[in-house]
Amino acid sequence: MRTVAGQVFVLQVGVVLLLVVAAVAALVLQSRYDSEREASNRSMAVAESFANAPGMVSALRGRDPSAVLQPLAERARKGSGVDFVVAMTPQGIRYTHPNPARIGKHFMGSIRAAAEGRTVQETFTGTLGLSVRSVVPVKDSHGKVVGLVAAGITIKKVSGAADQQLPLLFGAAAAAMALATAGTALVSRRLRRQTHGLDPAEMTRMYEHHDAVLHSVREGVLIVGGDGRLVLANDEARRLFELPPDAEGRLVSELGFDPHTAALLSSGRPATDEVHTAGERLLSVSHRPTDRDGGPPGSVATLRDTTELRALSGKVDLARNRLKLLYDAGVSIGTTLDVVRTAQELAEYAVARFADYVSVDLADSVLRGEEPPDGVPGVGSPDTVGSPDTGPWGAVAAADGARTVLRRTALSGIRDDGPLYPLGMLIEFGPGAPQARGFRTGAVTVEPFLADFGGWQEQDPELARRIVDYGIHSMITIPLRARGVVLGVASFMRAQKPEPFEEDDISLAEELVTRAAVSIDNARRYTREHTMAVTLQRSLLPRMLPEQNALDVAYRYLPAESGVGGDWFDVIPLPGARVALVVGDVVGHGLHAAATMGRLRTAVHNFSTLDLPPDEILSHLDDLIARIDQDEGPGGLDGDGGGGSEGITGATCLYAIYDPVTRRCTMARAGHPPPALVGSDGSVEFLDLPSGPPLGLGGLPFETAELELPEGSHLVLYTDGLIEKRDRDIDTGLEMLRAALAHPGRTPEDACTAVLDALLPDRPSDDIALIVARTRVLEPGLIADWEVPSDPAHVAEVRAAVARKLAEWDLGDVAFTTELILSELITNAIRYATGPIRVRLLCDRSLICEVFDTSSTSPHLRYAGTTDEGGRGLFLVSQFADRWGTRYTSDGKVIWTEQALPLSKSGKPRT
């Protein structure tokens, strides 16, 4: 029984015996079940037939039911083959029985349900053995139970079918054994022929070798039949060619092989180490036919993956590609001195190369151009506690009590619906977040499998679950470090690419982040310097326009996008209700230009208090710039005699003074573009002013031009940044400015807006200053003018005339003070001056008193001694007037005073 055939025979005998035993058991069980069911059916049928027989009810109600029913019951019992048929009262007293001695006795069985009108059937063991009895009620026409009928039969009377079938069963078993013996002989003969006489041990070893070829050998094996169909493919061959599960049995030409490989497998041609391709793999294929030496038709091919050899030989190409990648990164990242743009360039570059999603988070102080917070690198606090995007400040705390707060500065990905913190959000990272660890310690954090939830999810468990469900499976977090300081962190994530980040990816990401960190730090330092320069520049410019009634003024000031310049403007009220307009431009950019602009603006204010004409003010500014250039240029006073500061090459300026009383405007310019005058009808004229040299060159005088401006006209002053561009000359800019201004009925604000809309470049390379001033005229009724003879006797007349005029203006409250001031000024003019004297009163925002004479001598305030006869007049004037001073004219001088207007009767300031 050690042969395969013997083992098969024993197996078949066991199977036949098992089947015979099962069949006998099933036959016995089935026979018993059928017998019980047949006994139940027969007893019930007999009982119901006898109970429902005609005359049964009348017999039971007769005088002697036993005499009538006993013969009938015995005849029914014998005819049906049951053991007994018993008729009884509803209380169970027998009327009939096979043994007459038991008539009149109580029935031994369950009759309660039958007495209530239901049938009863039960199995019991009586004197004759296992039996079944049925009890059926007898009902009259009204449904009343008038008697009971019971019928019973033993089960053995209906059994015996199984005994008749057993011989047939044993005969079938013997036939099966005979067939098994014959089948075993045939199987033994066929096995010997097909296994070439191999015993089971040899067949086992052959199967083990076959299994190793199929599953363990790391070389592919393909066996192809003579009809060109694939007979066998081991696991390695399936992997190399990505064969479908049902590949065996299909034609080679239908399995997606490379045409060259399919032709070799179908041809049967011998081949040794031929190179074939399978996708991106290189395979070495050896092919041999199998029909030599009497074998079956077909062929066998062995495959070896040689891709690693190609990868080894391509390491040089890989290194060269990596160097090119880093070179491209140097070109693509840090193209501007903008922190946000540089961070976004890093994110976009990495997404296009080796990551699917990239985020860059920086400290808010870095975005402002400041140094990262002091103390532990990367530990900071939000700018506004409890702001909407920070949440509760104490929600997440590191183990040392510090919190890591970063701003999402850049975000890029292959799709826009990634479940990541949005761009611009201020994020408070918990201590377990990779971003917090990297920012605090400067260490690289690698999460190769995010789905493992190794602690990174503690920052936001719900968001972490959505990130993993979205498909993001791997992440690297690298700190942005420059000059030993951590500026922020960059996170690289993969979703579409199935493989996690490897060592090469990590080193490449570190190099990219290192390069980007230097660019971000440079941009941060530039932002800091630019912010400082802009802050300085804006602090030096006027924060609001002074109150005056001569001009309606609107202005615009736009600094350059890269590097602040030295453009400035000013509106300066002057005595006599006049107003000075100034616009200028210092050559160059940066802090030096802004600081020089502040010095020039201060100087203009100081020179304006002297009430000098425009050409003299420009001359003083020219001298000032020359001294600055001398002191701070090469060889200047910089502490080492070397002159380390940047020299000033010049500045341009336009200075204009407008008088609302005479509507006269005097202007002078030093190398500055000419102003534009817009008439009330929309006509535009560029005023032809004498063009002096730029400030700082020296050697040439400046000239003043004077013209009369119509009421309601617009005087437009600007710097060259408005009309000049690299791709546009000045003439084209002036024509564009003319077209933008040529619209009547505009307010100064509307005019400023229209000019900037028309001429403002997309990226201003120079500062732009623009002033639009609409002229006003002081009403004649608010002007009073008198000629005073050079005789003290006429002073009283002037005082009386002034009192009447003040009463007319409802300014009687200041009449006494005004008369006193004018008396002193007129008396001094009569005493010290020659020629005609003129007195003028102006009621503007203040009450202005002016005394004109032909003398060029300026009075000086002094303190008179107790024994001096004079010298107290100007002292009294200075005490009663809010302001006073002297200005010179072409034919003499004017001494002026200003007094505040009294409150109106309603208690409000006068307008």
- Principal-axis shape equals elongated
CATH class of the largest domain equals Alpha Beta
User: How many individual helices?
Assistant: 23
Give the number of domains.
Answer: 5
> Kindly state the mean pLDDT as a whole number?
82
How much strand content do the residues show?
Answer: 15-25%
CATH superfamily of the largest domain: PPM-type phosphatase domain
Largest sheet: 6 strands, antiparallel
> What class would the helix/strand composition place it in?
alpha+beta
Please tell me how large the radius of gyration is. Answer: 60 Å
**Second CATH tier, the architecture of the largest domain:** 4-Layer Sandwich
Strand order of the largest sheet: 12-11-10-15-14-13
- Portion of residues in helices? 25-40%
Q: How many beta-strand runs?
A: 31
Which tags fit this structure?
Beta-Lactamase, alpha+beta, single chain, 24% strand, 911 residues
Question: Could you give a quick summary of the protein structure above?
Answer:
The chain has 911 residues and is an alpha+beta fold. The protein is 38% helix and 24% strand.
Could you characterize what this model shows?
The structure is a single chain. This protein is an alpha+beta fold. It has 23 helices and 31 strands. The strands form 6 sheets. It has a 6-stranded antiparallel β-sheet, with helices on both faces. Strands 17, 18, 19, 20, 23 and 24 form a 6-stranded mixed β-sheet that branches. Strand 8 and strand 9 form a beta hairpin. The chain is elongated.
Strand and helix layout:
Blueprint: H1 4-51, H2 56-60, H3 65-80, E1 84-88, H4 112-115, E2 120-126, E3 129-139, E4 145-154, H5 161-194, H6 200-216, E5 220-225, E6 230-233, H7 235-241, H8 259-267, E7 271-278, E8 281-289, E9 298-305, H9 307-313, H10 315-332, H11 339-353, E10 357-362, H12 364-367, E11 404-413, E12 426-429, H13 434-441, E13 445-447, H14 461-470, E14 474-482, E15 485-494, H15 503-540, E16 551-558, E17 565-574, E18 578-589, H16 591-609, H17 614-632, E19 651-659, E20 664-670, E21 676-678, E22 684-686, E23 691-692, E24 705-708, E25 714-718, H18 720-723, H19 730-741, H20 748-759, E26 768-775, E27 783-788, H21 795-808, H22 815-832, E28 837-843, E29 846-853, H23 873-880, E30 883-889, E31 892-900
Parallel strand pairs: 20-23
Antiparallel strand pairs: 1-4, 2-3, 3-4, 5-6, 5-9, 7-8, 8-9, 10-11, 10-15, 11-12, 13-14, 14-15, 16-26, 17-18, 18-19, 19-20, 20-24, 21-22, 21-25, 25-26, 27-28, 28-29, 29-31, 30-31
